[in-house]
Write a structure and sequence with these properties.
The protein is built from ten helices and seven strands. The chain has a five-stranded parallel beta sheet with strand order 1-7-6-2-3, with helices on both faces. Strands 4-5 form a two-stranded antiparallel ribbon. By secondary structure, the chain is an alpha/beta fold. The structure holds zinc ion (2 copies). One zinc ion binds next to loops. The site of one zinc ion has 7 residues, from helix 2.
């Protein structure tokens, strides 16, 4: 196996997506040890309710106080910076589905990730069919499959339980209030799967990036409205 890997690296060299180093070693396929260990992945205390950086890791913080959040808990892997940002851009805009495994490997770095995920149904934040056709894949679904595959012991399933019925303009330039309005009513629960999944099942809605949390919150609201009781939010990177 090691010999085959060496041979493949010789024929098809891998490169660190951040610095370009050839055939990086150290546990990641497309990141060298140095780029994989940047400050973006520093495990700082985060609010268990909204996943923002907080003075202590408790349920609720100053940033989410008074906010109506429909997910019961939230978790992110890293900051949207350095390799954390490059992985998302590679996956989302450069056709780099091959980085999903590396993104999934980072999940083990997060404290309590095992308990957060164990036995869950992973539900990708959905893309509108027109966007899906253009990109050819839903990056969040690819990330979900990476997590399920790389953490087989956690007994995870991936189900496209949510559907995006309305295309939304990109959220990047919007204020927090406009983001909430922009995604309001954009999703529905799949009629095909609705009654096949137990309403008490642990559901984790997964997105690549969490900024205001509006998308994940609307996903959770849609699921709760349909009767799902146990809904969590997870994103690879958090833009603070
Ligand atoms: Zn590198
Ligand atoms: Zn909070």
């Amino acid at each position: 196996m090691a010999a085959l890997k060496k041979f493949l690296d010789f024929i098809f060299p891998r490169h660190c997506i951040v610095c370009g180093k050839e055939n990086p070693r150290g546990g990641f396929d497309y990141l060298c040890g140095e780029c994989a260990g940047g400050s973006f992945i520093a495990q700082v205390p985060r609010c268990k309710r909204c996943a923002e950086i907080a003075p202590v890791s408790a349920f609720g913080c100053a940033k989410c106080e008074g906010e109506e959040l429909y997910f019961d808990e939230a978790m992110v892997v890293c900051e949207y910076a350095q390799a954390g940002r490059e992985l998302v851009l590679e996956l989302k805009y450069r056709g780099g589905t091959y980085v999903a495994k590396d993104m999934a490997r980072f999940v083990s770095k997060v404290k309590n990730a095992k308990d957060f995920f164990r036995g869950a149904i992973l539900v990708p934040a959905p893309l509108h069919p027109s966007r899906l056709r253009k990109r050819g894949y839903n990056q969040s679904e690819v990330f979900c499959k990476g997590i399920a595959k790389m953490h087989a012991a956690l007994d995870l399933k991936v189900e496209n339980l949510l559907i995006r019925k309305r295309p939304t303009t990109t959220q990047t330039a919007l204020t927090k209030k406009d983001r909430i309005l922009n995604v309001r009513g954009a999703f529905e629960v799949s009629k095909k799967l609705k009654n096949k999944i137990d309403k008490g099942a642990k559901i984790v809605v997964v997105d690549d990036v969490m900024t205001s949390g509006a998308t994940l919150n609307e996903c959770a609201r849609t699921l709760k409205k349909c009767g799902f009781k146990n809904v969590r939010a997870f994103a690879f990177a958090r833009r603070s």
